[in-house]
Design goal:
This protein is α/β, with parallel strands linked by helices. Helices cover 28% and strands 28% of the residues. It has two domains: 2-114 and 299-327, Quinone Oxidoreductase, Chain A, domain 1 (Alpha-Beta Complex), CATH 3.90.180.10; 129-269, Rossmann fold (3-Layer(aba) Sandwich), CATH 3.40.50. The strands form three sheets. Strands 3, 5, 6, 7, 8, 15 and 16 form a seven-stranded mixed β-sheet that branches. A six-stranded parallel β-sheet has the order 11-10-9-12-13-14, sandwiched between helices. A three-stranded antiparallel β-sheet has the order 2-1-4, with no helix packed on it. It is globular, with a radius of gyration of 20 Å.
């Protein structure tokens, strides 16, 4: 028995090369569940792994792909049986453990989530870690107490993977979404996802001249960080909240403490990678009910395993719209 995988290697010059190879199944890493992978996807972190390793990969050769969906082929884990449709996001799969850019993966069953019947394996990867993270952001804002009547919600990096799903879910739930993007040409796309209005990124990229600006947003889903986060926080209304998950604009932000101590604003950090199983299952259950899957379809493009290396630099440059589903069979 063999499987096909995009095998990555790092050369002496530290450059990453990738080639599709056929390997015997005994090359798969240890784990109690073997999955016949059907789809994977492309995330910002995959872009890092495929172009430089991003400091995330410790041993070579490596198989990237931080998430995948497919069908259980063999299981020694009592929670899974052959034939189960499953999804995997994070757990440092695709970084420290071989990931989804292959036709088979072997992992710990504890890392897998059974897919709700309403989500096919292909749609699961259209959602991917990006969509699952977007749902975690939405759930954090809901737990904070934000409701559709609370006021406008800002989504930064709105035309990206996390941003697109956040816009679609929040709009379906009845929130008034302001989608901030550096790609104003994507305004029709963001409105089709349900954004009430589109804000040009440049309105949020000049550092605020005051630590508090006029109160505007009830909440924020931030995928960018940097100046955009600082400027967004300065405009959150009294008692509002920001769910922060990304760093597309840098890992630091020139913010002030004043929104927190004068307006009682809360900031929730979102981690999708090591999140325990129960909230993961809840997020996937909610994606099955609250994400308008048909709207998501217009955000999805498809690629084969052989195209992944050339797409990686594009996601790092912010040139990918919505989600890319990788069909590992081609
Ligand atoms: N915390 C977690 O567990 C977790 C999980 C998944 C992803 N993430 C992080 O979340 C972020 C978004 O991920 P993604 O998959 O949605 O990536 P993505 O598809 O590349 O989207 C990122 C978006 O951010 C905007 N952007 C990119 N570079 C920017 C810059 N220099 N300044 C301002 N805006 C910029 C762009 O949106 P516009 O074109 O609309 O402006 C871009 O489409 C990444 O940093 C990723 O690492 C974190």
């Amino acid at each position: 028995m063999s499987f096909r995988a995009l095998i990555l290697n790092q050369g002496a010059d530290r450059k990453i090369s990738g080639a599709i190879e056929t390997l015997p199944v005994d090359k798969l890493p240890a784990g109690d569940v073997t999955v016949s992978v059907e789809y994977s996807t492309l995330n910002y972190k995959d872009g890092l792994v495929l172009t430089s390793g991003g400091g995330l990969v410790k041993t070579w050769p490596h198989v990237g792909g931080i998430d995948f969906s497919g069908t259980v082929e063999a299981s020694d884990n009592s929670h899974f049986a052959a034939g189960d449709k499953v999804v995997l996001n994070g757990w440092r799969v695709g970084e420290l453990h071989w990931g989804g850019y292959a036709t088979k993966a072997r992992v710990k069953g504890d890392w897998l989530v059974k897919l709700p019947a309403s989500i096919s394996t292909k749609r699961a990867m259209a959602i991917g870690t990006a969509g699952y993270t977007a749902m975690l952001c939405v759930m954090a804002l809901e737990r904070h107490g934000l409701k559709p009547g609370s006021g406008e919600l800002l989504v930064t990096g709105a035309a990206g993977g996390v941003g697109s799903v956040a816009v679609a879910v929040l709009a379906k739930l009845g929130f008034t979404v302001v989608a901030a993007t550096g790609r104003p040409q994507e305004a029709p796309y963001l409105k089709a996802l349900g954004a009430a209005s589109v804000m040009e990124r440049k309105e949020l990229t000049e550092a605020p001249d005051r630590p508090l600006l006029s109160e505007r947003f009830a909440g924020v889903v931030d995928t960018v960080s940097g100046v955009m986060l600082a400027k967004a926080l300065a405009q959150v209304k009294y008692g509002g909240a920001a769910a922060v998950c990304g760093l597309a604009g840098g890992a630091t932000f020139p913010g002030s403490i004043l929104p927190f101590i004068l307006r009682g604003v809360a900031m929730y950090g979102i981690d999708s990678v090591m999140l325990p199983k129960a909230p993961r299952e809840e997020a996937w259950r909610r994606l099955g009910t609250d994400l308008p899957l048909d709207r998501l379809d217009s955000t999805v493009s498809e690629a084969g395993l052989s195209e992944v290396m050339s797409l990686a630099p594009k996601i790092l440059r912010g040139e990918i719209r919505g989600r890319v589903v990788v069909d590992v069979s081609r």
